[in-house]
Amino acid sequence: MLCKKLLLSFLLTLLAAAPVAAETLKIGLNYPQTGRYKDQGLQQRLGAFLAVDEINKAGGIMGREVELVIRNTSGEPDKGAKNTAELIDREGVQMVFGGVSSAVAIASGRAARDRNRLYFGTLTYSNATTGAAGHSHMFREPYNAWMTAKVLSQYLNTQHAGDEYFYITADYTWGWSVEKSVRKFTNTENTDAHKGVKTPFPRALITDFRQALEQAEQSGAKVLMMVLFGDDMVRALNVAYEMGLTKKMQVVVPNLTLGMARQVGPTIMEGVVGGSPWVWSVPYQYNYARGKEFVEAFSSRYEMRPSTAAASAYSIVYQYKDAVERTGTTDTRQLIRALEGHRYTFLKDEQYWRDFDHQNIQTVYVVRVKPRNLIMEDEYSADYFEIIDSMPGDEAAQTREEWEARRKEAGQPLTL
Fold first, then answer.
1. May I ask which residue range the UniProt record assigns to the signal sequence (predicted)?
2. How many domains does the chain fold into?
3. Both 304 and 328 in a single domain?
4. pLDDT for 318-330, tens place per residue?
């Protein structure tokens, strides 16, 4: 009997001393696997999985393995919000990120806030995301429409001063936001002199784009501002090329991504100008070592170059890791305080999360699509963009006074 008791005591001691595997740390990615923005969604997924794999190989976050749980928004706000609720309530994720449509990101962010979880906007350019609709639990990683317009206007006001513009705009929050901002900073707010047309969203047809482009051609404008994104931009630009408009007008796509450029192709895209918070050539042009590491790891793993969407998702995962490790907790309130005002250097030069609106402040760029022969010289035939202008983030972003004015107009409090 004594021997049995001793044996039992010994086994209990061994069990108590045995290491217990730390609980998996779940984070949720809510992105469009289908719909008009599926290519940008896929890039988010690829960037996020790369970050998670790297982090897990390095020991996880505070010793906990990271698990990425994904959901398909299909580009629909209601579905995005439902997915976010499910990721938190059923899956137990500690943070959610994603979105391409700003309407999806805003709806998803509210669902996260209601459950006291952080939401990081991965691709959401409407001013409202961190403006009129901003709240304490929403952090936006890319730039917004205001910042896009500021950097583009710096270039356009020099190159196209006095020229007539024509706007083709997706009829939803992002499109309105971008058009309003670009008009403001390019002095084209007079809609009689600088005409425009709205195209349906999310179900625009080729005929909608053709009719809009016919009006653009008839206007005699020199600058064609195509406030379209994803598959909508791809289809519209193909029609513009068929009509010969890309040779007659300077085509500007305010938010230009590698994925959209690849879908259209180098011949049609040549000479198109747009804005971007990041393109894969930035780290090489300005010698940002960590950015080069990301591009090379992504290119090697997926046999393609990363887009802005991939870089945004990748950065968010690492920023969440950094915040958790700096605070020593996954508590949402403490993470919010840790993120606010935090400065860091990652894939480019210094960035920071602004405290009063949670907008990521960073350098923004104007890019122009290169000639086909230069694009094809790249190993992955993807060297699309020449950086032709840039602006520091603090100069591009709204001031606090400008932000507060928009909050007052929307009847929102002046603090998050």
1. 1-21
2. 2
3. yes
4. 999 999 999 999 9
